[in-house]
Amino acid sequence: MSTLNDADRREYYRIEDLIALEITPLRASEAATSEVLQDASPLFNLLSELHLSEFESQHLLRQISERDRTVSSYLKTLNKRVDLLSQIVAQTVLGQIGELQPVTLSEGGIEFHHPHPYPTDS
Question: How much of the chain, in percent, has pLDDT values that exceed 90?
């Protein structure tokens, strides 16, 4: 079995994607508090909860589908409606934050382009 060299390993742990990115610079006094890790976007939090809820209920929907196809079809229709509503909310969030932008996530952090440069290690 071959092992990855250092350059390949660094590339292996990189994830490139287009995301909605909202950046809020912190003062040093704010960065020292434990509240820094709390997300200030209620819409984003709701979308995250919605996604988690759907993921957690998938096995239940499969079980219902095995027992009652009519109920399963109805629940799938309701699920599609909820998905459409969540897409509307996501588009609303994008309208507030701005266009999707390319980012690279890695073990070392996040790389993105911003119109106002931030000092390294800030």
Answer: 25
Which residues, in sequence order, are CB contacts of 38 under 8 Å at separation 6+? none
Predicted structure pTM score: 0.53
Pair of tokens at residue 48: 């995250």
3-state secondary structure labels for all residues of the chain? CCCCCHHHHHHHCCEEEEECCCCCCCCHHHHCCHHHHCCCCHHHHHHHHHHHHHHHHHHHHHHHHHHCHHHHHHHHHHHHHHHHHHHHHHHHHHHHHCCCEEEEEECCEEECCCCCCCCCCC
Q: At what angle do helices 69-97 and 42-67 cross, to 10 degrees?
A: 170
